[in-house]
Amino acid sequence: MTLETFSHFNLVSFEKIDTSIYQSLDELFKAVASEIATLILTKQKKGETAVLGLATGATPKKVYTELIRMHKEEGLSFENVVCFNLDEYCGIPSTAIQSYKTFMNENLFNHINIKEENCNIPNGNISTELLKQHCDEYEKKIDSYGGIDFQLLGIGRNGHIGFNEPGSHVSSVTRLITLDHLTRFDAAYEFGGMANVPRKAITMGIGTILKAKRIVLMAWGERKASIIQQAVEGIVTEYIPASYLQGHKNASFVLDESCSTELARRKTPWLTDMVKWDNAMIRKGVIYLAQLLNKSILKLTNNDYNQNGLSDLLALHGQAYDINIEVFNQLQHTITGWPGGKPNSDDANRPERANPAKKRVLIFSPHPDDDIISMGGTFQRLVDQGHEVHVAYQTSGNIAVADDEALRFIEFVKDYNKQFGVKSAETEKMYDEALAFLKVKKNGEKDIEALRKVKGIIRVGEAKNTCRFVGVSLSNAHFLDLPFYETGLVEKMPIGEADFEIIANVIDKIKPHQIYAAGDLADPHGTHKVCLDGVFEAVKRLKHNEYMKDCWLWLYKGAWAEWDIDLIEMVVPMSPDQVLKKRNGIFKHQSQKDGVVFQGADSREFWKRAEDRNRGTAELYNKLGLAEYEAMEAFVRWKF
Ligand code: F6R
Known about the structure:
41% of the residues lie in helices and 13% in strands. By secondary structure, the protein is an alpha/beta fold. Helix 20 (576-586) runs antiparallel to helix 21. Fructose -6-phosphate (F6R) is lined by residues 55-59, 86-87, 154-156, 160-163.
């Protein structure tokens, strides 16, 4: 179900292109797949060919999964379909795991009845002499089918469509292009490091794309929210190639909820529609106003409200003075140095209950370092304040260990065994296998199980080291090794029964008063999101148990982003010393320190990201007029 389809029916629209927002990702994928299927069927009835323009990457993968399902279960035939892919890397064999040809074969073509000759992908290995001709022929071939009926697009974080990087001309055609730094950076993981990412690609042009009869640009996840806002609400500019779509008469953006958060209808809904001014909306409005005017909350005047689209709020709730105080107090009450509740004190205005004074706390850490990175200060306080703290490490995190780091440990074990005459045939075998594989491993190739085990053990050791450092007994460190993660690839299996059971078991065993989980939807590979879904499902299954009635679930954000300030329900301040201690706790994760296999969209090391973010939150509070702290960790309570 779309939440809102046609924003131009709203009071005021800032959106310059038709934009639909879907509540769930599944619904989004199904809606796009179903539009494609309807086109194919309509064309079939008329005995015509359906010409599809297709994209690769994470964005459309599940649309292809749904089309495959429709083919297998509903008999959707691709006999009459001709596909043209947007782009292809240059300089890698078409059989490489990272080539878009391989991607399309594995994710769609191999599983449907499309004719091989109908699958068109630019040839990234064409010689320089033949390149121009190849590109011209690609254009001509599209035209020979009467043009593209339906063009599916993703969007890069720099606003590219296809590989039309910023600066691409509106009438550009299929051509060779130099990839942007950001594009290469985002692809670094698939290629096992920036150095291996191709510098050039062949892409259909903006002009080619705009000739399509229907265009759907899909985007999901918080990471794309900012570029989506610029493409949908900003001016048409070559700096954001996706903004050219504003000029197409039949183009739509389809988004999920988390990708729409920067659009005016989400960020300032009172400017685009009638809103219900409940507590949460008032808080959002007032914080927005204070930030817009760079004023502290208590300094906002009636005039400020009236001149910035918030006169409605004044009309309903009286003077700025009263609203300011109300919101200021709400924010004040989110601040606590007692994340587990302050014993023997009035807790009416505190984020956590005073009782029981000593709580059982269960921290879910999706990867082995999220506990310390994202809530290290709070983790330390919970331990120092005498709560029984457990950490459940949800996944092994093995794919984020670099090969040379694994090699170092393998050599250590082998040298140790040799020097001290330790003999364990099985261990030796595992380490030998891993070593032999490392010697012949190809770029981006999936690790064999023995190597994954070595990498997993490295991360277990680091997590244990952090626990010791914070003061958590190792018997309270639970390594869940959730099966969905264990593919050895970025692509994980869907979360399933076995995962739910493991998560539910650990909750049931500990019977916690507090659960902390990563409420992070911006993790580039979605592991945090899947781990959160696992916690939600486990909690749903257990919620009828007596002990769950006394259990509160707090969500922290992973390393990538922070909660919007108006949503925060608990912030835990940190002193300069506590910030330093947290930094040292993060340093225990040596395999993640430099040259992390996957660095994400941000090249800062994890300790730096965490500190910048925690300092940023403290600064925001301070700017709104609250006390000045060195840093703060923020949480939102999830009520079930
Ligand atoms: C891929 C393509 C690109 C991607 C974009 C987003 O064929 O043309 O424009 O759509 O880079 O990539 P993902 O979906 O991996 O975030």
